[in-house]
Design a protein that fits this description.
By secondary structure, the chain is of the alpha/beta class. It has helices at 17-25, 98-113, 129-134, 152-160, 173-186, 225-232, 239-246, 265-275, 278-285, 293-301, 303-313, 336-346, and strands at residues 47-50, 65-66, 75-76, 80-85, 91-92, 95-96, 118-122, 165-168, 190-194, 208-214, 219-223. 34% of the residues lie in helices and 13% in strands. The chain has a seven-stranded mixed sheet, with helices on both faces. Strands 2-3 form a two-stranded antiparallel sheet. α7 crosses α11.
Length: 350
């Protein structure tokens, strides 16, 4: 789950100049639209969504085709849709910071998403209560109500930059992103999730990437399937199962080590690579030996513990929220320069 970000370096207003250049290179047929506070709501009554109107035809994606070889027909390239996990970039250290948000957003628009569609997602009210009922230690070190919800000033900036905003009561942003990611993939697009949250690694695939804000270097950095395999020596499909063994200290989810100190990452990866998932591994261990005696005893004795971790750490894919096809259109960037420049100047010390 999201962690507060450390301080980031100052990004001058000139950092968003490329946005103006991009907008100038593709003049719009209509006058720029500044959205006002009249949110359109997606199907769920508990879901608030503030979405921009579809851009004019000249601003939409042209689905480029790759040249085929020989007589093979050309295949359409997949467009990208970005999901922006807003809450983590709204912090400097443990304190909310509007200037940190503005700087990360400016970098995101000018160097990452460009004109590709962006959907911003916030935690809903009571979003982590479900997991806290399962595991009282889940995010217990974080004050209730702090770092959740949508700051109206942040929402206004996103709306002015033609970014739809989604928030579903009773769910964390992670669950909403996971649900919408499935829907976007079904439409034939690729997904890029903009967040430092390691929980999203369980979604990584050929068509799902992450892009993370890196405070140490002051920029966003892509994290792909290739990076994951190189780092963990396993497939992302077992990421969630692996984290059930290792735990998540930042979110207050203990691993198996305090119960079985000798059961480490190497053992977990070896068993998961062989059996494919935690559930397959536990079911197999219940009827026959799957490894060394010590590992076998751990799997049998602590099966319920591991299953509870799985339920806490797994992202939900069934949130009652529906993708709006207008969110798949190229983003109208005509307001970016003025909106972000004004916001950065206003909150440069915030």
């Amino acid at each position: 789950m999201p962690l507060p970000l450390p301080a980031v370096g100052t990004v001058p207003a000139s950092a968003i100049a490329p946005v103006a250049a991009a907008a100038a290179a593709a003049p719009l047929r209509y006058r720029p639209i500044r959205l006002r506070a009249s949110p359109s709501t997606v199907s769920s009554p508990s879901t608030s969504a503030i979405s921009s109107p579809p851009p004019p035809p000249s601003a939409r994606h042209s689905r480029k085709h790759l040249a085929g070889r020989g007589d093979a027909p050309a295949r359409p390239s997949k467009g990208r849709v970005f999901f922006l996990d807003v809450n983590p970039i709204c912090f400097r250290g443990s304190q909310r910071s509007l200037s940190a948000f503005a700087r990360w957003l400016a970098l995101f628009f000018t160097h990452v998403s460009l004109r590709d569609p962006v959907v911003a997602v916030f935690d809903g009210a009571g979003g982590n209560e479900y997991r806290r009922r399962l595991l009282p230690s889940y995010k217990a070190h974080r004050t209730r109500g702090v770092g959740t919800g949508a700051d109206s000033r942040v929402v206004d900036v996103l709306r002015e930059c033609n970014v739809p905003v989604v928030q579903v009561d009773g769910y964390e942003a992670d669950d909403v992103v996971a649900t919408l990611t499935e829907q976007v993939l079904q439409k034939g697009y690729r997904v890029v999730i903009a967040s430092p949250d390691k929980d999203f690694k369980q979604l990584i695939s050929e068509d799902v990437q992450l892009v993370m804000p890196i405070p140490e270097i002051g920029r966003w950095s892509f994290y792909t399937l290739r990076h994951y395999v190189a780092q963990y020596k396993c497939d992302p499909t077992v990421d969630l199962s692996l984290r059930c063994f290792m735990g998540d200290e930042a979110d207050g989810v203990p691993g198996i080590q305090h119960l079985a100190p000798g059961f480490g990452r190497k053992t977990a990866v070896k068993l998961l690579n062989k059996h494919g998932s935690l559930e397959n591994l536990l079911n197999t261990a219940a009827v026959r030996t799957v490894g060394k005696e010590y590992a076998q005893d751990v799997l049998v004795k602590h099966a319920d513990y591991l299953r509870k971790n799985y339920e806490v750490l797994s992202l939900k894919r069934d949130v009652n929220v529906q993708l709006d096809d207008r969110w798949l259109s190229a983003r109208d960037t005509c307001n970016d320069t003025s909106v972000l420049s004004d916001f950065i100047l206003k909150f440069s010390k915030g």
